[in-house]
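Page 42, continued from yesterday. The earlier attempt failed because a stray header line got pasted into the input along with the sequence. Redoing it now with the clean sequence only.
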Amino acid sequence: MYQISKRLLDLTSATIVLVIFSPVFLIAPLLIKLDSPGPIFYKQRRVGKDDKEFMMYKFRNMVQNADQILIEDHQFNKKLKKKTGWKVDANHDPRITKIGKWLRKFSIDELPQLINIFKGEMSMVGPRAYRNDQAGNEIEEQLKIYPQLRKQMQSVLTVKPGLTGPWQTSGRNILPWDQRVNLDAEYASQKSILKDIYLILKTPFVMLSKW
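This time it went through. Structure tokens are written below.
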């Protein structure tokens, strides 16, 4: 019953969000194309439920060759991996475009993940989708630093990653990687529809607080 209820919640809430933000899907692509050359959408390989990989969709917020810079510029790559959870602050990452900074600030770049939700690869609420691409496997890289979190990570991978979730509504980029994993593992162990609804309702307030 939990799985059925969660899927119904995913489809219902994703449809509502799609309708509410439909103007964004018209305006954002135009601004992205005017700001810098390259595709509108960005696809990245992520790790989902049961360790299965999938392509996650986002609005492109970086220069077209951002992934190549990450792979070839070893000094930049080293600095990036020293940051928490492979994240670089949007104010200091030279790969991020002007419009990309605003897309990231208000999490608008994440909206195309509704495609992943309708495809059943993600849920509306869940753990963060950890990356696994040419630049490396985020999970294995970080577990070398935090080997004590391997059990928690196994728990995280028993559920679908989410468009929003505990880490997105509890500090996001300022949280170190180990705290994110602990939050995700705690969420994965609860399996509560009421918790999902609470996090969905909390997300807009978190987004508005960035204004």
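Notes: The mean pLDDT is 86.
Reminder to self: strip header lines before submitting.
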